[in-house]
Amino acid sequence: MSGDQYGRHDYTIQAPPMPSAPPPAPADGVRAVAVAVLNLGGLGLGYALVRRWVLMALCWAATAALLLVALPADPDGVPVLALVLYAAFLAAAAAHGARVGLRTRLAGLRHAPLALGLGLVLLVAPAGGVVLYDGARDEATQQMLLDRLDEADRAVEAAGGKAFSTAQADYDGALSVYSGLRADHPDSRAAQRVPSRMKTFYTTVGAPFARGDYCAATAPLKYLRTVPKSLPGTDLGDLRTWPDDRLATSLYACASAALTSGEATWPSQFGELLTTFPGSAQAAKVEPAVAAAVVRTEKELAGADPCTAVERLRTLGTRIDGLTGGGPGVADALGKDSRRAAGSADAGAYTCGVDQYRDGDFDAAQTTLTDYASAHKTAKNAPRAKKIAIAAEIARTVPAAGRTLPTTRTGGSISVTVQNDSPDEITVLYTGPVTGSFTLKACGGCKGYSLGTTLNPRFKPCGDSGKNYPERTISLPVGTTYFLHKPMGDSLATPASDTAELRSGYVYTECAYTTQRLGSGL
Questions:
Q1: Secondary structure (H, E, C), 57-100
Q2: What's the confidence (pLDDT) of residue 519?
Q3: pTM for the whole thing?
């Protein structure tokens, strides 16, 4: 202050500083709620009304990030973490917007109730987006299931070009997909298409039958019979029984081929047919096929290899005995076929033994005909079988004895006496025009001769008049007769042979004695 001489004073007046921002508006709850609700829409519109542009841009960025994660729609939906983070962000934006809007005037929409109404209306957009997204997600799921169905279809198509043993894993995988679609997604378009796919599945798996490869068709057809269990609740229609008649046909055809060729698989295949489809037309043909095989094999007894026919008949009988199942009377008919095969094999053993003898297989012939004669004592061929067996035993030591087939002829005009000068009981076998055998008891006072004694020119067995040599006289025809002397019991002596040329007007003596081996002399 200053003054002059008259006592006046001058004053300087200064204005207060201007505020840096408008003064806050009075608190308004409706306005706060309106800003919060507008922020819940995800676009930060509440921040726009209160002119918080950076925060609005942040809301846009958060929503864009969510869309990048969520789109395109995936069957698995939006990751839970992304949803949780976005929901937390919206809640924070709404809470912060409410705090800012409580004392901040709105720009543009100055009436808070109108802004609140607009916020509530705009919330319909996110809700609609959720509905649309769920629809897109459902469509993505449908497409994923259709892709899975197509992949299974392609696997079935590819497996059709492989052997069933190799392709079964692929069929199992496709069937698992079909079953999963029906069980886990029954209302999906893919699940609704499964029944139509099964026709292709069945025809692909059963393709060997269509090609006439019946043996290869049995395994896949049996597999197809299990498919309905893998697709419960699926209407397969006629496909449920589609494999049955085809499997019965395949089992019969494959078993019949094996029966004809002599393979060992036919009993199990016929048995499965009789057990699984006892009333089928194919099962009714099993017994006639078996009976025909027996008749066919019987005819082979008169062929070039009767011994093989005998073995086949025996094998047939054994395998027929193993067949079970079938309708009434089948078991009895098969039992009759088995007995016929066994009986024909036994009877054919005689033909087999004769063939072995003619082929020079004297060991086998002796065994075969000895067994035949023992088992068929009353058979008409039993007497001759015994004689051929004797001749075969002699021919094992003297092959020339087997040049001709013995007959049942007996007797002759030439007397031959056989004496035993050995300490062993012996069997004397002979063959030629007449064949037979007899036994001589051991000589009680006889001993084996030393080799030196037998080499003496004056050596004469059976020449001791003081001994009573066991002997037997037989009548033989003129011709060559082959003798075989063999010791019996536990003797260590070996058999010995002799060949006699018998002529009319002579009386012959055959003497058996022991040295290092059984010998014989006239």
A1: HHHHHHHHHHHHHHCCCCCCCCCHHHHHHHHHHHHHHHHHHHHH
A2: 45
A3: 0.67
How many angstroms separate the CA atoms of 471 and 419, rounded? 4
Q: Angle 242-261/214-224 helices, nearest 10 degrees? A: 150
Alpha-carbon span 472 to 510, nearest angstrom? 10
Nearest to residue 481, comparing CAs of 423, 413, 424, 421?
413
Q: Which residue has the tokens 């040329």?
A: 501
Q: How many CB atoms lie within 10 A of CB 376?
A: 16
Pairing of strands 508-514, 518-521: antiparallel
Domain boundary among 329, 359, 389: 359
- Identify the three-state secondary structure at position 467: coil
Range of the domain at 303: 241-359
Angle at 27 between CA 25 and CA 28, to 5 degrees: 105
DSSP state of 325: -
Mean pLDDT confidence for 98-127 = 61
Cα gap 236→310, rounded to integer Å: 51
Establish how many alpha carbons lie within 13 A of residue 354's alpha carbon, considering only the half-sphere containing its beta carbon. Answer: 17
In-domain check, residue 393: no
Q: Is the same domain home to 334 and 429?
A: no
DSSP assignment string, 151-182: HHHHHHHHHTTS-HHHHHHHHHHHHHHHHHHH
The CA distance from 355 to 364, in Å, is 10
What are the counts of helices (DSSP H) followed by strands (DSSP E) for the chain? 20, 8
Using a 10 angstrom Cβ sphere, with 0-12 exposed, 13-18 middle and 19 or more buried, the burial of residue 277 is: buried
CB 126 within 8 Å of CB 42: yes
| Residue 175 placed within a domain | no
Q: When comparing pLDDT for 453 and 213, which is higher?
A: 213
**Does 409 have pLDDT greater than 90?**
yes
Pairing relation of β-strands 414-421 and 508-514?
parallel
Rounded mean pLDDT, 334-347: 94
Please state, in angstroms and rounded to a whole number, the distance separating the CA atoms of residues 227 and 196: 14
Residue 352 pLDDT > 70, yes or no?
A: yes
Strands 426-431 vs 436-440: parallel, antiparallel or unpaired = antiparallel
Number of domains the chain contains? 3
